[in-house]
Amino acid sequence: MSISLPPATENNSNSLQPTGWLRFISFSLDHKVIGLQYLVCGFIFYLIGGVLAGAIRIELLSPISDFLARDVYNQVLTLHGTIMIFLWIVPVVNGAFGNYLIPFYVGARDMAFPRLNAVAFWMIPPAGLMLITSYFINGAAQSGWTAYPPLSITTPAAGQIVWIVSVLLLGGSSIFGGINFIATILKLRRPGLKLMQLPMYCWAMLGTSILVVLSTPVLAGTLILLSFDIVAHTGFFNPALGGNVIVYQHLFWFYSHPAVYIMVLPAFGLVSEILPVHCRKPLFGYTTMVYSIMAIVVLGLVVWAHHMFTSGTPPWMRLFFTIATSFIAVPTGIKFFNWVATLWGGRITLNSAILFSCGFIVNFVLGGITGVALAQVPFDIHVHDTYFVVAHFHYIVYGGSVFVIFSSIYHWYPKFTGKMLDEKLGIIHFVLTFIGFNLCFAPQHWLGLNGMPRRVAEYDPQFTLVNQISSVGALLMAISTLPFLWNILYSFIKGEKAGNNPWQALTPEWLTTSPPPVENWSGEAPLVTKPYGYGEKNSDEGGSPITQA
Amino acid sequence: MLQKTAIYTISISLLIIIGGIWAVDNLNLLPVVASSNAPIYDELFKVLFVIGIILFVGMTGLVIYSLIRFRKKPGQVGDGIALEDNLPLEIFWTAVPAIVVLFVGLYSYDIYERMGGMQSLSTNSHDHHSMNSEGRVWGGIGLTSQDAIERNSLPMINVDVTALQFAFLFNYPEGEIVSGELHVPRGQPVSLKMESKDVIHAFWVPEFRLKQDVIPGQPTVINFTPTKTGKYPIICAELCGPYHGGMRSTVVVEEPEEYQAWFKQNSKQPEMEL
């Protein structure tokens, strides 16, 4: 190789950076530190969002509104949705794992724009704190995470404005991150590394970042117009002043449907990294996986109005969005069949990482099936805005993305810390989470079909028992975080030493020390042309898929 | 060997299909059928449910089977097979879902048309509303009625619905009735023209399998023909403020004579000439 990376010592911008644990609360430019900052910060917000979910499930134990004041209940459900989406799943599946892994995967020493990267992270804690503080000052926003006008215009303005500013900051952070990922993947690849040799997570992040950069600005513009309606009494979305409420919904969902893919595409990428390692098999169908991701990106931009089938949408539009949405099932299905084919004939180590990944496959298949059903206008017209939809999207974002986040933590914790996690605690965590999750959300399909709308504090008494079952599931989910937290903290101090590559993985982040040095590899970056070169055939031929420079 | 596998696969698939059909017929998954729209909906639900069960049980079964069969047993060393792709297999599982999705899409189009979703709104109802010719009316689904009218020669009942925080008001223009409950006769088509006074609400009757948002500044229409007498809840399905969960009303489906009696009793106008 005639071209090479600058040697590690030349990368002196990092020498001014703090070292030790202080790095993690500073404006560090190291992509690995920023990745872990995203992860820990996201997890703290996950716990807060989880407490809010608990409050909702306690309120729903009885059919009357008795636990929270009515406006507080609406604030709680608004904060729960906003926190879980914008402060937990989006920053963690993109920011945390993306920042940690992408530079390794492209063979770079850092992201393309390290300062922009640090700025993007440091926009998140103030935005999150602001959002939560608004609850204690004047009351938080109470119009749901969708903030549909005119409700968002007529509810108390202070909370709604704080919500808008906070989401604008988080959206800005997301755009900065997206630009950084696109630049890093396309421009910072190690010489000799071709696009079609990249690990699948790079493709997932490239696709996701395209969606982020194309759609988040639309949300930002929409929310700015909404804030004008609130503070300056303009009439963009206010029908009393000649505005149109449906236009807001189109603009909002133009971002917020792709946002679902922003939450699940990176998860698809992470699963594609985890399965081959623990199955000791190549990722099945690499090429079709890449094309599927890109197909999902394109289709994902033209399906938004399926959230608006009851909003007063003309018939031709209802049909167009039914067909477009249904067809997303095809590339998504390909990915799932490919993962099952990756399991098939493997030599699978049944550890926590693989269990959470397989739990993800099962949950997401169910969420995908209800998704195709919801895409059909005549089906949706009955269950839209009911608990059926609540069940569906929790199967996608919790059963899907959150299961993958846990799987990823079990898989990469040895790299992050140099210590192994305890497998017994991990399996207890999986069993509790899987049972709790399904107990909580599966019955909600029935609730929606039979007449329970979403976002209510009171409901028909015939639904009491099923709601109580759902709440027991939520309690199990809450309990399941205890062995996980204990595992993370205990293993950090007393865990077994992991060594550099405990899983004998082939992707580049494992070909360095655990935790890795600031410059990622002490020497030159390895050229990994076959990141999934597992399997007996390869070892028979004796050729190593890795070329160490 | 291959024959044996094929027999297993076919018999397991048949079992799943039969199980799915049994489940959808015997489990109480949907509320009572009370409009001409609801049986069509339930037909679609049944098809989607069976396809969904086949896919879900099949995929879950494959994952669990793989985890057990291909788990690393104690003492085993080395990797799995170096299988990277298989073009015929990949073409197969691209084509089959595409065909299934296409089938589901065409089938639900058919269902949608039978529900009256593709009918032009301006022709089938609310001709007496002068507003209609000026403003666009959106929404609208529900078996209405050109056929129902022709078959039964029953006139359509027009009701204006006003939604506000946190109630529905039903205005019968013909009798100048304003009611908090919706009264409709069994077997006669009903057309609701809805508008909101404040924020977005939604009109939902689970037993009718129908929902339509009620929007400020944008009238929407929903049509239905009730088929079963009884009292059914009208539920607001769009977050509309602190009392959203309490924003409910009732639709009373009565025999035509009972409806006429109610109408006469509440009507402010002298009895109309028929």
Write the layout of secondary structure elements.
The complex is a heterodimer of chains A (549) and B (274).
Chain A: H1 31-59, H2 70-106, H3 114-122, H4 124-137, H5 151-154, H6 157-187, H7 200-231, H8 245-279, H9 286-300, H10 315-343, H11 352-375, H12 377-383, H13 387-417, H14 423-450, H15 464-494, E1 527-528, H16 536-541, E2 546-547
Antiparallel strand pairs in A: 1-2
Chain B: H1 2-26, H2 38-69, H3 87-114, H4 121-124, H5 131-134, E1 138-139, H6 146-152, E2 157-164, E3 167-172, E4 177-179, E5 182-185, E6 190-196, E7 201-205, E8 210-214, E9 220-224, E10 230-236, E11 248-254, H7 256-266
Parallel strand pairs in B: 1-9, 2-6, 5-11
Antiparallel strand pairs in B: 2-3, 3-4, 6-9, 7-8, 7-10, 10-11
Explain what the structure shows.
The complex is a heterodimer of chains A (549) and B (274). Helices cover 66% and strands 1% of the residues of chain A. Chain A is an all-alpha fold and 549 residues long. Chain A has one domain (26-535): Cytochrome c oxidase-like, subunit I domain (Cytochrome C Oxidase, Chain A, Up-down Bundle), CATH 1.20.210.10. The longest helix of chain A is centred in the first third of the chain and has 37 residues, at 70-106. Chain A is globular. Chain B is an alpha/beta fold and 274 residues long. In chain B, 41% of the residues lie in helices and 22% in strands. Chain B has a six-stranded mixed sheet, with no helix packed on it. Classes of the chains: A mainly alpha (549), B alpha/beta (274). Chains A and B meet through helix 2, helix 8, helix 9, helix 10 and helix 11 of A and helix 2, helix 3, strand 1, strand 8 and strand 10 of B.
